[in-house]
């Protein structure tokens, strides 16, 4: 909130989208007229009632982000809307987040269908719930898939909200930043594994960033890794494991790549490393965080 305010955005354009809010954060929101937040349990509604009763709106969060957030749309949400009414809190609309890097197009359809059901419940109870927040969860490095998601969302909005006067907003995170950064690492050491005949079978590389640093977020696609060497490289590729720099034996980045035989000092570049990397990284074992360098591509 502080960063966005400092960037010149006024409180009425900020949504405090964390469903579980520490009191000090709620107070900060109140001081800066950040009046819209999300709610997914009765406890949060009571908290709002007690500590921020004049908040303009609460958005009922109707879709689970894993098992941690959200409420069961068909059962809990109607009860929450009723409770909000009895506490005389306002409700602006619904909010969902289908989960990070969602590959299930139907998840957006189901979520928007649910949003419509809640919109009707709200209307029945006298609320003008015209805010539909479609959350985040979009890939940042796969434009073709993003186009499919956009198409699905557009047609679902038409289907479920047609000409209703809704205001639809989104909360993209990864989408904005993932493709903007490439992580360049140096090979600091290696181990070559040979069979009984002495033939090279697979190679391990140790590099200067790892699981405790920029690679903390799991499930990345490493098939697009690039390599740079000042040495002549053979055509042949070997099964490759890449380890991070710490002394922890679980600090493994990937172990099913096929790369040519590289050398100490060569560089590996991992594209699409702009999301959930540096902001999660630690300096465990005294390993410094990578330096951020900005460059402008020349056409
Ligand atoms: C409430 C909320 N909205 C949006 C996002 C962004 O999600 P993504 O990066 O999957 O688009 C997050 C991520 O932490 C979040 O907590």
Folded structure, characterized:
This protein has 299 residues and is of the alpha/beta class. It has two domains: 2-176, Alanine racemase (TIM Barrel); 181-281, Lyase, Ornithine Decarboxylase, Chain A, domain 1, CATH 2.40.37.10. Helix content is 27%, strand content 22%. The strands form two sheets. The chain has a six-stranded parallel β-sheet, with helices on one face. It has a six-stranded mixed β-sheet with strand order 9-12-7-8-10-11, with no helix packed on it. β7 and β8 form a beta hairpin. The longest helix is centred in the middle third of the chain and has 20 residues, at 105-124. Pyridoxal-5'-phosphate (PLP) binds next to α7.
Q: Which key phrases capture this entry?
A:
6-stranded mixed beta sheet; Lyase, Ornithine Decarboxylase, Chain A, domain 1; alpha/beta; about 300 residues; 7 helices; TIM Barrel; 6-stranded parallel beta sheet; 2 domains; about 25% helix; binds pyridoxal-5'-phosphate
Question: What is the structure about, briefly put?
Answer:
This protein has 299 residues and is α/β, with parallel strands linked by helices. It is built from seven helices and twelve strands. The protein has two domains: 2-176, Alanine racemase (TIM Barrel), CATH 3.20.20; 181-281, Lyase, Ornithine Decarboxylase, Chain A, domain 1, CATH 2.40.37.10.
Topology:
Elements: H1 2-6, E1 15-16, H2 23-31, E2 36-39, H3 42-51, E3 57-61, H4 73-86, E4 91-95, H5 105-124, E5 131-133, H6 143-161, E6 167-169, H7 174-177, E7 183-194, E8 200-207, E9 226-228, E10 237-243, E11 252-260, E12 267-270
Parallel strand pairs: 1-2, 2-3, 3-4, 4-5, 5-6, 8-10
Antiparallel strand pairs: 7-8, 7-12, 9-12, 10-11
Helix pairs in contact: 4-5, 5-6
This protein binds pyridoxal-5'-phosphate.
Pyridoxal-5'-phosphate (PLP) binds at residues 17, 97, 100, 135-138, 171-175.
């Amino acid at each position: 909130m502080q960063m966005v305010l400092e960037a010149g955005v006024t409180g009425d354009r900020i949504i405090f989208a964390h469903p579980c809010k520490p009191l000090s954060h709620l107070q900060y929101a109140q001081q800066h007229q950040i009046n819209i937040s999300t709610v997914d349990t009765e406890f949060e509604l009571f908290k709002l009632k007690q500590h921020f009763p004049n908040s303009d709106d609460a958005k009922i969060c109707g879709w689970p982000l894993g098992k941690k957030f959200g409420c069961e749309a068909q059962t809990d949400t109607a009860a929450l809307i009723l409770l909000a009414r009895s506490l005389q809190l306002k409700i602006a609309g619904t909010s969902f987040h289908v989960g990070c890097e969602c590959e299930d197009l139907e998840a957006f359809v189901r979520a928007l269908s649910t949003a419509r059901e809640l919109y009707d419940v709200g209307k029945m109870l006298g609320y003008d719930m015209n805010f539909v927040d479609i959350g985040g969860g979009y890939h940042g490095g796969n434009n073709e898939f993003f186009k499919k998601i956009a198409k699905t969302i557009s047609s679902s909005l038409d289907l479920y909200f047609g000409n209703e006067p809704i205001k639809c907003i989104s909360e993209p995170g990864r989408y904005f930043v993932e493709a903007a950064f490439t992580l360049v690492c140096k090979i600091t050491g290696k181990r070559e594994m040979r069979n009984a005949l002495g033939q090279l079978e697979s190679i391990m590389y140790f590099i200067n960033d790892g699981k405790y640093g920029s690679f903390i977020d799991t499930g990345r696609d490493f098939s697009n890794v690039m390599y740079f060497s000042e040495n002549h490289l053979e055509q042949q590729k070997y099964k490759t494991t890449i380890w991070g720099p710490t002394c922890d034996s679980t600090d493994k980045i990937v172990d099913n790549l096929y790369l040519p035989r590289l050398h100490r000092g060569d560089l590996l570049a991992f594209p699409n490393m702009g999301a959930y990397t540096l902001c999660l990284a630690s300096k465990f074992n005294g390993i410094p965080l990578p330096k951020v360098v900005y460059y402008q591509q020349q056409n």
